[in-house]
Design a protein that fits this description.
Its main location: membrane. The protein is mainly alpha-helical. It contains 15 helices and two strands. The C terminus is likely disordered.
Length: about 500
């Protein structure tokens, strides 16, 4: 945070000679100097908070991206349902994160496991946090919940969404973010007491683990416990594609998520007006690191998209825009951990491997008869895990010291000459997140399943949740993939007839 530069009349007085008015002149100069210094300090606070608010707005815009991506990836009969769940992720998550989540995550001073201050934003703002910081962290929390909703789409009861979303954003996710992002967290790279895990702490700059793995592993358990959608696998166990109804919505959602990622990754610096003591000169500061982070994010996503495009062409024989969009998002999920501490060329490596990680996990999911309509667990959980390992391999010493100052001998990437300690910390993060989310979200989904609150009945699933649970369809359609007798409209072309009418007009037939 900014700090004012002080001026002392006693220090200034010897430089003004021994005139009778020297004391008054020194006090006057210091008063003016202090006023200017305070103004600049206030300006710094304002600029940094405006930057953080703008980043929060970008991250929140990702909810629209999630909604469009989910809507396009499900069948038309479940469109209204999945869009409503995305709205509820934000709304229910807003209240739960306000009441409990933020306090559990950043309620300093606290222990290494859980925060214990700022419940309901009591005694807020503080010297440590302003309201912009709460809004930014809330946008991250609901992003994790949005990831999970995609995994269990098309067959989950609405009440289950409300329960798991509130629990995830109010308790499960905040605990993880406290461990790795709070100054008190036991594995945080920003731990204030200097007692860092393996001398480095975990570097998960924008949340490949904290956000993407948490959402992905939670979705994994939800989808596993309630089982695949009806018709996803035939009686012989062979995979049957249940295609989403709109590639256009998928592409729209992907571009919105791409746009929002520029708040997700670069915005995680939290401030922009910060200079670096660098031999590169005064033109190089945190603003430069923010720009570099945007570049690494872009390159990883672009590389993953192109890798997926050509790889799927070789594997299945055609160009598939849905696969390319998922590959792009997999690259973004992977680079999110190390985006601020790696070179742009390393981001290309990250995106290339992320594409193959996603392809491999999708192949494994089919073999295990695991059904995730949006590939959310494979994408966010699998690619997020790779991103954490990638950071332990490619983090550059100079960038690590810029982003996490105060410990010049901190370990960095194994492939960059920094030894294996950072990689060890990163692997610990992967294991801990898998364990924590499994012991919290797994039992929750199991209890919902036992009390018949998780999955809808077979008849409702076949007819579609929009009709049976939400009072009607999102729009009129005819679902070609469906063999059910649900109502719909099939439009056919209208042709003129050759029979003249008394009014000398051609009659037209209409088929509905």
């Amino acid at each position: 945070m900014a700090s004012a530069v002080t001026c002392s009349a006693a220090d200034l007085l010897p430089h003004l000679g021994g005139s009778a008015n020297a004391t008054a002149a020194a006090e006057f100069i210091c008063d003016r100097f202090t006023a200017v210094s305070e103004y600049l300090t206030n300006t710094t606070y304002a600029v940094d908070n405006t930057y953080l608010l703008f980043s929060a707005y970008l991250v929140f815009a990702m909810q629209l991206g999630f909604a469009m991506l989910c809507a396009g990836s499900v069948r038309a009969k479940n469109t209204m349902n999945i869009m409503l769940t995305n709205v509820l992720d934000a709304a229910a998550g807003g209240l739960s994160y306000y009441l409990f989540g933020f306090a559990f995550a950043f309620g300093t001073p606290s222990n290494g496991f859980i925060g214990k201050h700022f419940f309901g934003l009591k005694e807020f703002p503080s010297p440590s946090f302003d309201y912009s910081y709460f809004l930014y962290q809330w946008a991250f929390a609901i992003a994790a919940a949005g990831i999970t909703s995609g995994s269990i789409a098309e067959r989950t009861q609405f009440v289950a969404y409300l329960i798991y979303s509130s629990f995830l954003t109010g308790f499960v996710y905040p605990i993880v973010s406290h461990w790795f992002w709070s100054g008190d967290g036991w594995a945080s790279a920003s731990k204030t007491d200097g007692n860092l895990l393996f001398g480095s702490g975990v570097i998960d700059f924008a949340g490949s683990g904290v956000v993407h793995m948490v959402g992905g592993i939670a979705g994994l358990w939800g989808a596993f416990i309630e089982g695949p959608r009806i018709g996803r696998f035939d009686r012989t166990g062979r995979s049957v594609a249940l295609r989403g109804h709109s590639a256009s919505l998928v592409v729209l959602g992907t571009f919105l998520l791409w746009f929002g990622w520029y708040g997700f990754n670069p915005g995680s610096f939290l401030t922009i007006l910060k200079s670096y003591d660098s031999p590169k000169g005064v033109y190089y500061g945190q603003w430069s690191a923010i720009g570099r982070t945007a570049v690494t994010t872009t390159l990883a996503g672009c590389t993953a998209a192109l890798t997926t495009l050509f790889s799927k062409r070789l594997l299945v024989g055609h160009w598939n825009v849905i696969d390319v969009c998922n590959g792009l998002l997999g690259g973004f999920a992977a680079i999110t951990s190390g985006c601020a501490v790696v070179e742009p060329w390393a981001a290309i490596v990250c995106g290339f491997v992320a594409a193959w990680v996603l392809i491999g996990f999708n192949k494994l999911a089919v073999k295990l008869k695991y059904d995730d309509p949006l590939e959310a667990a494979q994408l966010h959980g699998g690619c997020g895990s790779w991103g954490i390992i990638f950071t332990g391999l490619f983090a550059k010493k100079a960038y690590v010291n810029e982003v996490y100052p105060g410990f010049p001998d901190r370990p960095y990437g194994l492939f960059m000459g920094g030894g294996g300690k950072l990689l060890g910390a990163q692997i610990i993060q992967i294991l801990v997140i898998i364990g924590w989310v499994s012991v919290t979200m797994g039992p929750l989904f199991y209890l919902l399943h036992k009390f018949k609150l998780l999955r809808i009945c077979r008849e409702d699933e076949e007819a579609g949740m929009d009709l049976t649970r939400h009072g009607g369809f999102a729009y009129l359609y005819h679902d070609e993939d469906e063999g059910s007798s649900m109502p719909g409209f099939k439009m056919t072309r209208i042709e003129p007839t050759n029979t003249p009418t008394p009014d000398n007009h051609n009659s037209r037939s209409v088929v509905v």
